[in-house]
Amino acid sequence: MSLPKTEQEWKLKLNPEQFRILRKKGTEMAGTGEYNKHQPDHGIYECAGCAAPLCNLIVVVGGLVTFFDAFPGAVSRHEDVSEIINGMTGNSILRSFGRIRTEITCTNCGGHLGHVFKGEGYGHPTDERQLSFRLIISIKFNESMPAEDKMNPKF
């Protein structure tokens, strides 16, 4: 699949909210979206920008889509230096409680997926979670999944 190369091509491929989040590093309100209360327990979550597989399980923490383990090589990590700010400007806060955040992006298309949070005590071996946004992930059901489960995923 050929990826868009220009901002205009991305605008044609994505809806306005997806473009704002994936390409402009925007955020979305907690507690919104199709995965807020219903998380299928089968399938693969993909990047809405390029359909690259990201992970196979999400959870909602504080009303936001979170995953603990991305597929190897699916996401890239970067120190979030998108803005030097005092407080809040636009949609991005550079420093969170005195720490510089780590941004995660789709390795395939470079789309902004969210941020990594560490040391929150969720009992996961890495002691971190990767916050993402429901508008920029989609689910692809496993081909081996029974047809009735694809039509009525377990929520």
Strand runs, count: 11
- Please give the domain count: 1
Helical content class: 10-25%
Number of helices: 3
Task: Note the main sheet.
Answer: 6 strands, antiparallel
Distance between the termini: 31 Å
CATH topology assignment: Metal Binding Protein, Guanine Nucleotide Exchange Factor, Chain A
CATH architecture field: Beta Complex
CATH homologous superfamily title = Peptide methionine sulfoxide reductase
Query: How much of the sequence is in beta strands?
Result: 25-35%
Q: Mean of the pLDDT scores?
A: 71
Computed over alpha carbons, the radius of gyration is 16 Å
Principal-axes geometry comes out as: globular
Low-confidence stretches: 83-94, 145-155
CATH class: Mainly Beta
In N-to-C order, the SSE pattern is: HHEEEEEEEEEEEH
Given helix and strand content, the structural type is alpha+beta
| Strand order, largest beta sheet | 3-4-10-9-8-5
Domain MsrB: 7-142
Protein name: MsrB domain-containing protein
Keywords: Metal-binding, Oxidoreductase, Zinc
Family: Belongs to the MsrB Met sulfoxide reductase family.
Helix/strand layout:
Blueprint: H1 7-13, H2 16-22, E1 44-47, E2 53-55, E3 59-61, E4 64-67, E5 75-79, E6 95-96, E7 99-100, E8 102-106, E9 112-118, E10 128-131, E11 137-140, H3 147-151
Antiparallel strand pairs: 1-2, 1-11, 3-4, 4-10, 5-8, 6-7, 8-9, 9-10
Summarize the model shown:
This protein is an alpha+beta fold and 155 residues long. The chain has three helices and eleven strands.
